[in-house]
């Protein structure tokens, strides 16, 4: 059975570490706004096992117009469960919840080699790019809700 539901911030850390931050300790896998009242964390479960997470922060970006924006961070799907539409399903449920919160825009930054994946999820690539020394070139992606 596959289920998607809200989870607590600390429940995202193990998958963030495994998928996104393998060189960090579990304590270092938190984000600054994890415990803000407006933050939404979503988990995807197969049976009782957490196999995917994503976090959504009420946050604007300097290049995005509009005030009702959320930022997607920490989208992490366990490698054993990829290519099964888990990320897409998780994101669709979250977008529904964000729309209920009157969010108009969802945005994220991603490495240049992940742009095609986010385009598949409905995000549009922008001209805003920046370089992270330890990771490489990042691109701002935006999606209207």
TrEMBL record:
Lineage: Bacteria, Bacillati, Bacillota, Bacilli, Bacillales
CDD domains: NAT_SF
Residue ranges constituting the N-acetyltransferase domain according to the UniProt record: 1-145
InterPro entries to which the protein is assigned, alphabetical: Acyl_CoA_acyltransferase (IPR016181), GNAT_dom (IPR000182)
Pfam families xref list: Acetyltransf_1
GO molecular function list: acyltransferase activity, transferring groups other than amino-acyl groups
SUPFAM superfamilies for the chain: Acyl-CoA N-acyltransferases (Nat)
UniProt-recorded name of the protein: N-acetyltransferase domain-containing protein
């Amino acid at each position: 059975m596959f289920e998607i539901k809200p989870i607590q911030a600390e429940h995202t850390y193990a998958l963030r570490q495994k998928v996104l931050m393998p060189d960090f300790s579990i304590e270092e896998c938190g984000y600054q706004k994890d415990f803000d009242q407006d933050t939404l964390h979503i988990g995807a479960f197969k049976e009782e096992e957490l196999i995917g997470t994503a976090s959504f922060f009420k946050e604007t970006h300097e290049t995005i117009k509009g005030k009702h924006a959320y930022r997607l961070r920490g989208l992490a799907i366990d490698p054993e469960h990829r290519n099964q539409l888990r990320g897409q399903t998780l994101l669709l449920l979250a977008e529904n919840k964000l729309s209920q919160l009157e969010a108009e825009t969802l945005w994220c930054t991603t490495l240049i080699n992940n742009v095609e994946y986010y385009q598949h999820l409905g995000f549009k690539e922008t001209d805003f790019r920046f370089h992270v020394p330890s990771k490489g070139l990042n691109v701002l992606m935006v999606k209207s809700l």
